[in-house]
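Consider the tokenized backbone below.
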């Protein structure tokens, strides 16, 4: 499983490096916009779905159809289970930093897109067990994601997008999210 993940991370890095060789006159890289994100994430295993909050940055375009963005997101989910008459509570939190590329298939008022990128996840686990026992742990992991959605330009300064994102990190995650980005006019 880890070998597949390393392969996909290296393939994505090679693709990003290949894009740096494109026509420099067509690229428009820089801090172009900032906004917020709200959504619903469903992590794998016994954790239930929960809301996610975050921020997103528009970092420009490599070519007119290939957009670069970065984001951070946070969510926390817990589950309770009983065993042998006792109650157990486990909580998992994820703070993720992501950066990726989105290919916009058409340019216009409504722009469907698909893309992917890399993410750095900072996980935190808290557990409460019967009889006063508790524990906590943290971990970080590099993962990758794919995303698809549609972007709509509301006016000269605001754009919104709705998207579905699949993350491969441990635990894997599926998210439905809405982004609102304010253009910085650069």
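A designed sequence for it:
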């Amino acid at each position: 499983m880890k070998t597949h993940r390393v392969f996909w991370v290296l393939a994505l890095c090679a693709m990003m490096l290949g894009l740096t060789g494109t026509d420099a006159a067509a690229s428009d890289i820089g801090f172009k916009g900032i906004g917020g994100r709200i959504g619903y994430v469903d992590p794998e295993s016994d954790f239930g779905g929960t809301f996610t909050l975050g921020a997103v940055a528009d970092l420009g375009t490599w070519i007119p159809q290939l957009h670069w963005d970065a984001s951070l997101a946070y969510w926390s989910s817990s589950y309770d289970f009983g065993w042998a008459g006792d109650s157990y509570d486990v909580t998992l939190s994820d703070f993720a930093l992501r950066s990726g590329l989105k290919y916009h298939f058409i340019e216009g008022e409504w722009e469907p897109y698909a893309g992917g990128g890399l993410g750095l996840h900072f996980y935190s686990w808290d557990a409460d067990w019967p009889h006063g026992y508790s524990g906590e742990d943290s971990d970080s992991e590099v993962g990758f994601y794919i995303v698809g959605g549609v972007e709509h330009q509301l006016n000269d300064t605001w754009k919104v997008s709705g998207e579905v994102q699949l993350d491969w990190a441990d635990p894997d995650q599926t998210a439905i999210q809405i982004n609102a980005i304010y253009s910085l006019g650069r």
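The chain has a mean pLDDT of 85.
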